[in-house]
Amino acid sequence: MTINELLQLESMKNSRILAGNEQEISITGVNVMEVPDIVNWVKKGEFLMTAGYSYRNKHEEFAELIPQLAQKGIASLGIKVHRYFETIPQAIIDNANKCGLPIIEISEDVVFSNVVREVIQSLSSEEYMSVSGIIDKIRKLSELILGGFGIESIVKALADYMENPVIVVCNDGECTSAGLSAEDVYTEDMDEKYQYNNLHEKQGWMKLMIGVRQCKTYFYDIIQKNEQIARVYLLEKNRDISNADMNLIEQSSFMIGMELQSENVRIRVEMKYVDQLFQNWILGKIENASSFKMQCEVCKISIPEMLDYKACIIYPGKELPEEQMRNLLIRLRKNLKSFNDIYITYVNDQIVAVFVESNEKQYCDLIMSLVKGIMGSKYQMKLCIGKKSGYYYNLYESYKDACHIMKVSIRYKINGGILHYKDMGVYSLLYLIPIGQELDEYLDRYIKPLINYDGVHQTNMYETLKVYLDMKGNVKATAEKLFMHYNTISYRLERIRKIMGMDIGQHEIQFSLHIAIKINDMYL
């Protein structure tokens, strides 16, 4: 019930608002005040009525009571006139306007008991209608689940019912939302980024940014078998969130949880066979063309024959637990399911995507964007792309190429981005050098004396040599790069010649030193 609806009651005829003209404020109860300490007994949302007996000769004290009642959150204060107050004192009206507390002048012929009876009847009717509405909405949500419409349809229906955005975030970070655009809200680490207040053990509220606007956001944890599997967020964007809204969220959370678990089980069962097909294809375990076609038909997958394919290893930037990698795989699949010419699976602890060569740029850009959105920018992710298969049965050659690129890029600390074999440069050859006595002897000859000297004398000769070689033997450029005087660099280079026992100005020596430094840096 609102204040406007209160004024329409038969028992409130001839009453009017004198202050705080907010007629849409909700009333959740009714009370009568005829004792001085009433502020200790009132409740939030109540319509409070008085004839003013306790304050008949204390107008200033009555005016001072107004801010206290406003702070308690009462919906409105009704004062009967022509009994103990001929008119409502101006000080009361002024304080009410300052506090935003609606003051209603109640006509002298109004009977308080009649008002109480009508308000309670109206609130009871509203509560009954609210419960009926929740039951009806729960029934419709159940029909969506039984009809197999999926979690997206359920979340959209909830958002429509509440006229506010709804977001469901699973423990793996998968997000389903309705009522707002994807770029409006960033849900990663939501609980860490925002302060929130628990209403009880499963429910609470927080502040969330929607574009440039801060919205009060209620959340409710979805529990299955004593374990939280997801959280529902209800954003107070378009209208105030009511108790009925929170009741609907609470009642529907169990169904959402069941649907999420059912969907995950269904996906895992379906993808078990699809994964086996893709893994056999990538690892070169295809027996023959007819067998492969038959498996594709069983899995309802179309893989055109006369196209060139590429294998792409998606490396998130560091080694992650298998559970986290598989969650990333699931989320990528969901985001890529609308594309029928990209295939993605889990092979040898790696996420591997396969796509047609002609679509390489489109899918690489898309995968980079998706992984960054899921993982965040703190990971230096990379896509290691093998050469084209030539014929789709030869995809294993492309996968081996991608594995080689990934190992080289990790060992030589080649940072993120989209990497092809040509991007490895000399590293692709250095990677093939076996670790052993010959390699140790090479490093002992060309680089270890300088490193040992730095360790003993606390100098930085090794770094000076690296910059000198990077500057192609230009002493002046080396000095500028290291922010040192030309003579200082000249002295250091002469010292390096004596330590190394070689002329570092010769091109052949410089080449050998370059190789030694690159190999040595691999082991740092």
Structural write-up:
48% of the residues lie in helices and 18% in strands. With 524 residues, it is an alpha+beta fold. The chain has four domains: 118 residues, Udp-n-acetylmuramoylalanyl-d-glutamate--2,6- Diaminopimelate Ligase, Chain: A, domain 1; 112 residues, 2-Layer Sandwich (Beta-Lactamase), CATH 3.30.450.40; 129 residues, Alpha-Beta Plaits; 86 residues, PucR C-terminal helix-turn-helix domain (Arc Repressor Mutant, subunit A, Orthogonal Bundle). It has a six-stranded antiparallel β-sheet, with helices on one face. It has a five-stranded mixed β-sheet with strand order 1-5-4-3-2. It is elongated and about 110 Å long.
Q: What topology does this entry show?
A:
Elements (H helix, E strand, L loop, with lengths): L2 H5 L8 E4 L9 E4 L13 E5 L8 H14 L3 E5 L9 H10 L3 E4 L5 H35 L4 H12 L3 E5 L4 E4 L11 H4 L2 E5 L2 E8 L2 E12 L2 E9 L7 H40 L6 H10 L10 E7 L6 H15 L5 E6 L2 E7 L3 H16 L6 E4 L9 H17 L5 E3 L7 H4 L6 H10 L1 H10 L3 H10 L4 H7 L4 H15 L6 H16 L2
Parallel strand pairs: 2-3, 3-4, 4-5, 15-16
Antiparallel strand pairs: 1-5, 6-7, 6-11, 8-9, 9-10, 10-11, 12-14, 12-15, 13-14
Helix pairs in contact: 2-3, 4-5, 4-7, 5-7, 9-10, 15-16, 16-17
